[in-house]
Amino acid sequence: MLRPWHWILIALLALGLWQTRLTPVSPPLDTPSVAIHASRSAPAQRMLSPVPVVQQGDYELRLLAEFAINARVLGRENYRLGRESDLSPWDFALGWGAMADPSISSQFSIRQSGRWYYWRTDQMPIPRQQVITSSANMHLIPASDQVREQLERLNEGDDLNFKGFLVEARADDGWRWRSSLRRDDTWNGACEVILVTEVLQPVRPGAVVCDALPEY
Whole-prediction pTM value? Predict the structure, then answer.
């Protein structure tokens, strides 16, 4: 004989299955393959010419360069407001080279806000310029639902190895969001805006001025 709580459990399971069937599944974007590979010491980049263009919803994405990175997650910030969040629901502060070394990165306090990345330390374990060239705040755009799910599970301290494209996003009303194409720049335009097409390793469950800004 079924008890009342059995019926409640059955109803909840049925509701969950119904919602799952109604959830739309977005097809992955049709992009070129990325042939380059990144080492732990530095991201890899290869400029593209002519520039391929793909459409993601209401936005046109111009693929400026192939990009690959093998890095440590120094911080993550979720975003739900602003046009940028239509494409990129989170920023990841990533470190490579010296900043991927936990004995070094643990000496920094990392904060992200307003699509910016800030760092703070009581004593510099490496030169300031090395912090700038070995870390960045990156706006990640998932190219598929699978990539979105993999990135969603990432947290501070995880390793992330992915491939994709540095992009310029455009809208019909003239709005633009363009990626930096350098790792040594700061201030406005220094962010990487990246269409992530492939996460290359299993992900463990579980910041405008974007790169390595000291916080006073």
Answer: 0.81
